[in-house]
Write a structure and sequence with these properties.
homodimer, elongated, Molybdenum Cofactor Biosythetic Enzyme, Chain A, 26 strands, Molybdopterin biosynthesis moeA protein, domain 3, Molybdopterin biosynthesis moea protein, domain 2
């Protein structure tokens, strides 16, 4: 039978490394930072400003000289006020205090903030006397200039993913725009004579194509542009024809047709390009294809929806990051499994699971059914349990690696 | 001094519960599923179709009667082919086999799939003899009709967050649109005389406003519409004036001015509305305000950027989900800390940390500096270590709760 000649199964790590090694970043463009959410930086962002720009107070209180409050109670004369945006312009002398608020510049001559809870003050008028009740020390409650960042430092390195907090940092450091990688254009092609488009009632033997809807949303979430290449029939050359009709693709992702059944033609269509590998030691997702068609990198995902989704997470998201000049590594954690599990075979297993959190512990429970066609199970999963090849039998309570499913996945 | 009259500190859980209890979902709208990524469902989606619609094969091989292959080798006559999208229309009789491919309908009369690796077949022609080398059992490699979902079942429940995999499920189940909650309109108002807008060179005592940029991106990530209300000066009534000028807001989020210093006016401005609470047992984020101004819920975040960001994660994201008729709970995990940590005080602590993964374990290392002004530390953090009030001293290797920072945060 056809697959008696199948090559040895590649490990997931090797397959991913080969995919990433063959991808080059796309072109770059400059965007206002306000429009750059979800992009990857194509160049370092250096701070134009020092933050904070001056020693500032981290509390409401009084700016004083530490030596004047070494012994308490100490009586000082209030000589002014420093508020955020309104620095006190003078220089603090002996036995003087300046009323100060959070974020305000520490006046020259002051080296300590006494918090207001430790001060008895008769009034908020300058010239009044205050009594410091508790000694302060040098530098206390002062954020020194440059605590956060210094002008000229790299605020965000090339390749950084521009999330909300990083955009805020770049703006605070005086930047307004960013050089980013142009979102790669990812062609999405479903294959299968059984598929009808969403909105078409399926006839006998037909089902609605849903992998393209998944991949369209997924590719957007990864920061790339999905390009709909439609549905290719199960016939030799159909994939090549569909890809040839599209323009300026940075990668093609197909679903289905990835086995070597009589009706699976993607591997043979790669005679029009090149086949790097197919078949990996992974479940779901064994028939994964990596190659090139018409000069365009092609990732062939298996057609079962759970296989499509898991392989997209494991391979497509890092691949898109590489096309953007960045990196994506899924955060992995460890949790106790809620049930026993049998020994694993030679394939790395990605097991749909829910997380059960109690006061005492966090447990992860594999779904009872792991069939790769079951979209309902995937839709309600919280995480994938990742089991390496030949993992020995596990007992409830053993720790396993888990990959929490991203919110938009 | 002013805050000697401060109320007792609320716990984070109580504060969040009071915020969520006071919010009502916004209006609803119907959207094509292709446009509904990141929305919350305002109604159940019931499956219109059964998936799979018929018993289908999960492998490439031959559909047979299990009783005919109970003893092997067994010789059968190939009578046809069933491929995905091309069901075989007949009924399988004794000693007959139908060539079958993954996803294809199992012919009537067949109750077992023999995988092609276990068959010796002379040709792919109908009428030819095949030899089954290894016995199969009833139901083997058959996905029964309805394994995934049955028409009429709830595919996605009201309140579900529409991620990529859930949109795909709804489409596969025959749906094309979804009733979703209209994205709430969230007014974002920065306060502080020290702030200048991005693009303006700061003068003495001034800094660039960056919290609004953070919140704009964050609010988008949460599925809501940010509305820029600009920067309010530190003067009584300024917040009320700015909010009154905006239209159709579902919530206002302010940053800064949340203490009770002479220059902090948000609490007093809530005389124009109502003050539910301010000050919570949290670090960063103690001066958090929840109230109402001009009939609009107001969340007052502290002005330090890390406090703003952490409080947005802890309170604003769940609040937006509640306005959308959904729920958001941050996934929490456990990991070993990489260093000793001292006893915690009465405030729940959200400690910026990086994750260090080795083959043997996953450790979480608190950043050396935890000052709530330090955007650079936040920008490179992987997770927050969440320590409950009065947590005892910890030793390196002890397990702590961690909140991994979302990718777009």
């Amino acid at each position: 039978m056809p697959n008696s000649t199948s090559p040895a199964l590649l490990s997931v790590a090797t397959a991913l490394a080969r995919i990433l090694a063959s991808l080059q970043p796309t072109a770059v463009q400059r965007l206002p930072l306000a429009d750059a959410l979800g992009y990857f930086l194509a160049d370092d962002i250096k701070a134009k400003l020092t933050l904070p720009p001056h020693d500032v107070s981290s509390m409401d209180g009084f700016a004083v000289r530490a030596q004047d409050v070494a012994a308490c109670p100490a009586s000082l004369t209030r000589v002014g006020e420093s508020a955020a945006g309104h620095p006190w312009p003078g220089r603090l002398g002996p036995q003087q205090a300046v009323r100060i608020f959070t974020g305000a510049y520490v006046p020259d001559g002051a080296d300590c903030i006494v918090i207001q809870e430790n001060v008895a003050a008769a009034s908020e008028a300058d010239g009044s006397q205050i009594t410091v009740l508790k000694a302060g020390s040098r530098g206390r409650y002062i954020r020194p200039a440059g605590l956060d960042i210094t002008a000229g430092d790299i605020a965000l390195a090339k390749g950084s993913y521009l999330s909300a907090r990083r955009i805020a940092l770049a703006i605070a450091a005086g930047e307004t725009s960013a050089l980013v990688c142009t979102p790669p254009r990812i062609g999405i092609l479903s294959t299968g004579d059984e598929l009808v488009p969403p909105g078409t009632p399926p006839g006998p033997g037909q089902i609605i194509s849903s992998n393209a809807a998944f991949l369209t949303a997924f590719v957007k979430n990864c920061g790339a542009h999905p390009i709909d290449l439609g549905i290719a029939i199960d016939a030799p050359g159909a994939v090549h024809t569909a890809v040839s009709a599209a323009h300026d693709l940075d990668m093609v992702v197909t679903t289905g047709g990835a086995s070597v059944g009589t009706h699976d033609h993607i591997v043979s269509d790669l005679a029009h390009g090149k086949l790097d590998f197919w078949k990996i030691a992974m479940r779901p997702g064994k028939p994964l294809i990596w190659g090139e068609i018409g000069g365009i990198p092609l990732l062939g995902l298996p057609g079962n929806p759970v296989s499509t989704a898991v392989c997209a997470l494991v391979f497509l998201q890092p691949a898109i990051a590489a096309l953007c000049g960045g990196q994506h590594t899924h955060a992995m954690f460890r949790a106790a499994i809620a049930t026993d599990m049998p020994e694993n075979d030679q394939r790395q297993d990605y097991i749909r699971a829910t997380i059960e959190t109690t006061e005492a512990q966090l447990a992860v429970r594999p779904a009872t059914k792991q069939d790769s066609s079951m979209m309902g199970v995937l839709a309600t999963a919280d995480a994938l349990i990742v089991r390496p090849p030949f993992d020995p039998p596990l007992t409830a309570g053993d720790l396993v690696d888990i990959l929490p499913l991203p919110r938009l996945f």
